């Protein structure tokens, strides 16, 4: 039997932010944010309302661009990418889960997941298989033909998660994913999200909930646009 590797390879760097600053007129929402996201990470971003944490998540998700600094995503410098290129990279690498679910009410549960897959250019039998697998992962295979209006809040959020991960993203970005849920469903959703982290993917969650934050292996805190980790400079 071979001996285990005493020096296993370092996890793949998925995202690296260096000196990220974002200003809106005279307001500085972020000031020199620098940290790295590696495959296998589950990261909570905490901070008061207006601290800059949602702005940070938007930049990571290529929904916004920094005023200054560099952002490497999966080995590519995307700091000054065009809107069309950012859109393609979002489809390829990033999944989103939001507080308000954003389900399409006139579509069934399965159709909502299939719609998300169509945005990522997945169609036909391939998309059907991915949708069914994702709904099985979140425990909703029996609700595939249900309408969103017939689901509980926790079930609706699980549909949103299935839609985000049906074609597994490298970065799963969540903005207050438990904000509309009771404590029981909140615990179920955060357990599900953390369980989706793999050796090739990472999870980043913006949250006000200390229980959600403590479930993540790393915690970043944003205050007045400055990002720190565990009371130190973010790594």
Automatic annotation (TrEMBL):
<dbReference type="InterPro" id="IPR003439">
    <property type="entry name" value="ABC_transporter-like_ATP-bd"/>
</dbReference>
<dbReference type="InterPro" id="IPR015854">
    <property type="entry name" value="ABC_transpr_LolD-like"/>
</dbReference>
<keyword id="KW-0067">ATP-binding</keyword>
<protein>
    <submittedName>
        <fullName>Lipoprotein-releasing system ATP-binding protein LolD</fullName>
    </submittedName>
</protein>
<dbReference type="GO" id="GO:0016887">
    <property type="term" value="F:ATP hydrolysis activity"/>
</dbReference>
<dbReference type="InterPro" id="IPR003593">
    <property type="entry name" value="AAA+_ATPase"/>
</dbReference>
<dbReference type="InterPro" id="IPR027417">
    <property type="entry name" value="P-loop_NTPase"/>
</dbReference>
<dbReference type="GO" id="GO:0005886">
    <property type="term" value="C:plasma membrane"/>
</dbReference>
<dbReference type="GO" id="GO:0005524">
    <property type="term" value="F:ATP binding"/>
</dbReference>
<dbReference type="Pfam" id="PF00005">
    <property type="entry name" value="ABC_tran"/>
</dbReference>
<keyword id="KW-0547">Nucleotide-binding</keyword>
<keyword id="KW-0449">Lipoprotein</keyword>
<feature type="domain" description="ABC transporter">
    <location>
        <begin position="15"/>
        <end position="235"/>
    </location>
</feature>
<dbReference type="InterPro" id="IPR017871">
    <property type="entry name" value="ABC_transporter-like_CS"/>
</dbReference>
<dbReference type="GO" id="GO:0022857">
    <property type="term" value="F:transmembrane transporter activity"/>
</dbReference>
